[in-house]
Specification:
The structure holds two protein chains of two kinds.
Chain A: H1 7-10, H2 12-28, E1 45-50, E2 62-69, E3 76-85, E4 89-94, E5 112-118, E6 124-136, E7 139-149, H3 159-164, H4 173-176, E8 180-184, H5 193-196, E9 206-209, E10 215-216, E11 238-243, E12 254-260, E13 275-277, E14 284-288, E15 291-298, E16 305-308, H6 310-313, E17 331-338, E18 344-351, H7 354-359, E19 372-373, E20 375-381, E21 389-394, E22 408-410
Parallel strand pairs in A: 3-8, 4-7, 15-20, 16-19
Antiparallel strand pairs in A: 1-2, 1-12, 2-3, 2-6, 4-8, 5-6, 5-9, 6-7, 9-10, 11-12, 11-21, 13-22, 14-15, 14-17, 16-20, 17-18, 21-22
Chain B: H1 2-7, E1 39-45, E2 48-54, E3 60-65, E4 71-78, H2 84-88, H3 92-99, E5 109-112, E6 117-123, E7 126-132
Classes of the chains: A mainly beta, B alpha+beta.
Chain lengths: 411, 147
């Protein structure tokens, strides 16, 4: 089904969101939060933890608590152990972890909007898009489209959604290793123009469900899943992820902060961090041994340093834990990151034997800064990159204090 | 990329373009007439040919065709994940089985079976990947040509 140009007009309730979006765009153009302005600063810091997680099986996953409310009400619920993922946009919560009844986003005929999201590892989630107020620390995003994973048996997963993916539906705490995913990447929406237009082809992402059969549909920007941070009235130009260093063998847990805003309060100044702007796809360039890999990125939702391949790095793959590196002893490397803005600096990192890391401390460690695996032709700076750093995630279209507009990374 | 596109002589396959499926004959394009409607260009390369499909939203799918007319590899890049069953055809089942047997790793996917090598990476709004059937590689062509 293709709703074509008429779709926007059909989506009555969506227009409300679209209007809200326009207001926010107006704010965003000026940086939104008025850095240094006269308003009273709100608490912008949420505790961030890396540990084995709610299923006792997580490796290098960073968790926060997120409070979700029925829009405009005090009917709220706090969801613990939601994974912070800079490789996606939007809040997704497992239906088993939420008891609130949140208003569905639907078209004017009452057809529910649902989403099938495929991740890079070819796993996927399916479920309705609903509206919620999203709160963390003293920050509140009002009426944000979020997804409830596997909410309704009324709308089974469409065959396109299942068949398009390789890996499994990650619809349980055990499979997800978390109670939900908080997508805080460099973008405002999760699909943007690929999903707003019926031409040339609507991707199999958003669906309308007039009955038990759901069909692919276009969806206006304002009803797509949103990075909730840019919906905040202040501190809305990005986030800072701050995690302490970890020892070489890893550690069972570490904690520090997810800070909202960049250069908007005393605790989120760029300081000596360098800004690396990205291309439109959110990527920058990583160079290793003279070869440039232009589709490189930083992703807190990846649990390792997924870098090139064993022969390029001169180390060995693990024989049992497929996809990880197992050098006999830790090996040090240096690569160079270059932003679209030409800013360039070396990154030093180490890769240790994954078998040894997973066995250390009786297998109870969850945070490792030297866990690596293969990812030919690209560098994915996963969560190990974040330890011992403050990493700034600059949201597209939002102004940084230095005058740079997102998307960018800084560290 | 712009230079390449400007230099190449492109052609458009009417209103029902599609692409061939991995491991099948180039003529198998009729297996998909609804997905990724875009501009198709045929690009001659040394020892193989490339069919490149570009859509308006910026997705690109390349299919690598051997002199015998078989699709020996594919690659993709775009804002959303492609439908892998459509791309992989008869290789999808073994890919699906292999992709579900991993432990602990969360991140880009690399699958190597006896008959298929597949990599899928990137992040929301920028996915990329490639798949190759080593058995079908033309003479003197390495899997490294698949980008």
């Amino acid at each position: 089904m293709s709703l074509g140009h008429s779709s926007a007009a059909k989506f009555g309730p969506f227009l409300v969101f679209s209007a809200g979006l326009l207001v926010l765009i107006g704010c965003g153009g000026s940086g939104g939060s008025n850095p240094g302005g006269g308003s009273t600063p709100v608490d912008n810091t949420q505790a961030l933890q890396v540990n084995l997680g709610p299923a006792n099986n997580s490796t290098n996953e960073a968790f926060v608590a997120v409070t979700v409310c029925v829009p405009g009400s005090s009917s709220c619920q706090t969801i613990e152990n939601v994974e912070v993922d800079t490789g996606s946009e939007g809040l997704r919560v497992l239906s088993s972890q939420i008891s609130l009844s949140l208003p569905a986003i639907a078209d004017t005929s009452g057809n529910a909007l649902e989403e099938c999201v495929s991740f890079a590892d070819t796993s996927y989630v399916w479920g309705p898009v609903v509206s919620a107020d999203v709160q963390m620390a003293g920050e509140k995003a009002t009426s944000v489209p979020i997804q409830i994973i596997s909410a309704s048996p009324k709308f089974p997963v469409p065959s396109n959604c299942i068949s398009g993916a390789g890996a499994a539906d990650v619809n349980t705490v055990a499979a997800l290793g978390a109670n939900g995913i908080l997508g805080l990447g460099v973008f405002q929406q999760d699909c943007v123009f690929a999903c707003t237009s019926a031409s040339p082809q609507v991707p199999d992402v958003y669906y309308l469900c007039p009955n038990s059969v759901c069909r692919v549909s276009t969806v206006p920007l304002g009803s797509q899943l949103q990075n909730p941070v840019w919906f905040f009235p202040q501190d809305n130009n990005g986030v800072v992820i701050s995690l302490p260093s970890v020892p070489a063998d890893g550690v069972a847990s570490v904690s520090r902060s997810l800070i909202f805003g960049i250069g908007t309060q005393s605790d989120n100044a760029l300081g000596s961090a360098q800004v690396y702007t990205t291309d439109n796809a959110g990527n920058f360039q990583t160079t290793y041994h003279g070869i440039a890999y232009s589709q490189s990125y930083i992703d807190s939702g990846s649990n390792g340093l997924y870098i090139l391949d064993a022969s390029t790095l001169g180390i060995t793959d693990c024989s049992d834990f497929a996809g990880f590196y197992c050098p006999a002893s830790p090996v040090d490397f240096t690569a160079t990151n270059t932003g679209l803005n030409g800013v360039k600096a070396d990154v030093s990192f180490s890769i240790a034997n994954a078998d040894a890391l997973f066995a250390a401390n009786g297998g109870r460690n969850a945070a490792f800064d030297d866990l690596g695996g293969d990812n030919p032709q690209t560098v994915d700076w996963g969560l190990p990159f974040f330890y011992g750093r403050k990493v700034f995630v600059g949201i597209e279209g939002q102004l940084a204090p230095t005058g740079v507009t997102g998307p960018y990374w800084a560290y | 990329m712009k230079t390449i596109l400007a230099v190449l002589v492109g052609f458009i396959l009417g209103t029902t373009p599609a692409w061939a499926v991995l491991g099948e004959h180039e003529r198998s394009v009729s297996s998909d007439r609804q997905y990724l409607r875009g501009e198709i260009r045929a690009i001659a390369r040394d020892g193989y040919s490339l069919q490149q499909i570009t859509t308006k939203d910026g997705a690109v799918v390349n299919e690598y065709v051997s002199p015998a007319g078989l699709v020996f590899a594919i690659s993709w890049q775009g804002p959303t994940m492609p439908n892998l069953q459509q791309l992989l055809g008869s290789y999808f089942a073994q890919f699906q089985q292999a992709s579900r047997s991993r432990t602990r790793r969360r991140g880009p996917l690399v699958v190597r079976t006896d008959h298929l090598v597949l990599e899928s990476g990137g992040h929301m709004r920028a996915f990329h990947g490639r798949a190759c059937v080593p058995d079908l590689l033309p003479d003197n062509i390495s899997a490294e040509v698949v980008r």
